[in-house]
Design goal:
mainly alpha, two-stranded antiparallel ribbon, 155 residues
């Protein structure tokens, strides 16, 4: 589940993606426009800057901006930066795997196998969705690999 931190980070990135070339925005303005607590946003934007998603400039004409074009920023990377692994449970994570205390055979565990499929489906979408697509209404869900995702949820 996306946390408030992840949600606020995405809202701030959408705000910044809508700026014109060379424009920057101050934290106060982003917070006001998106109804995000400023102190919380300070922490979020700092993490995104440290992850290379944003750049900041102090002083007159300063503020935050995207570090590269919105078409090159992946939503999966942003969410992992702010919220950690995409897997719904730790034992299904690729980057933060932890065995369950109550599981004697992780390889045969049906819960883990199913949640690994969920993780893979989430990652497939979010790792292929750019901030540009996110701002314009989502990824293009066309093509054979996407068709499988759509039909499996409507059946």
């Amino acid at each position: 589940m996306l946390t408030k931190k992840g949600k606020y980070g995405l809202k701030a990135l959408v705000d910044l993606a809508r700026l014109g070339p060379g424009e920057t925005a101050f934290i106060n303005d982003i917070a006001l426009r998106n109804n995000i607590p400023k102190k919380f946003l300070d922490t979020i934007l700092l993490e995104l800057r440290n992850a290379g998603v944003l750049r900041s400039k102090k002083g007159p004409g300063g503020g935050y901006s995207l570090s590269r074009p919105a078409s090159e920023i992946r939503i999966g990377h942003v969410i992992r930066t702010l919220d950690g692994p995409l897997a719904p449970i730790r034992c299904a994570s690729r980057t933060a795997y932890e065995a369950c205390d109550d599981c004697s055979d992780p390889e045969r565990c049906q819960v883990r196998r199913s949640m690994t499929e969920v993780r893979d489906a989430i990652a497939e979408i979010l790792d292929n969705m750019s901030l540009e697509q996110f701002v314009s209404g989502g990824a293009d869900l066309e093509g054979p690999e996407r068709e499988d995702l759509r039909t499996s949820h409507t059946a």
